[in-house]
Design a protein that fits this description.
Shape: elongated
Largest sheet: 3 strands, antiparallel
Structural class: mainly beta
Number of strands: 5
Order of helices and strands: EEEEEH
Strand content: 15-25%
Distance between the termini: 50 Å
Oligomer: single chain
């Protein structure tokens, strides 16, 4: 499943307003989203069998996340660092 999130820090997603009849190229744009709602469909022998949440009293919730400007990170040496360091020490 592809969600087409182009920049998660600003909630920017790819937006393709084409219909299946419009097959021209380079029609993708970006837009900001306020979140995602997920549904599940069950097919049996190419026929729709069931849909979640369906017509029940199931509460549909939107998945969203906080935006950010600065990325928090921690620098570290990879496990292979010592092997590469030893290799380069042998080169004259």
């Amino acid at each position: 499943m592809l969600l087409n999130v182009s920049d998660p820090s600003s909630r920017t997603v790819l937006d393709d307003k084409r219909t299946f009849k419009q097959l021209s190229r380079d029609m993708l744009r970006t837009t900001k989203t306020d979140g995602f709602v997920f549904y599940c469909a069950l097919f049996e022998d190419r026929k729709l069998g069931d849909v979640l949440p369906g017509n029940s009293s199931f509460e549909v919730k939107k998945y969203t996340w906080q935006t950010w400007e600065n990325v928090e990170y921690l620098e570290r040496l990879k496990e292979s660092y010592k092997y590469i360091q030893e290799f380069f020490a042998t080169i004259e």
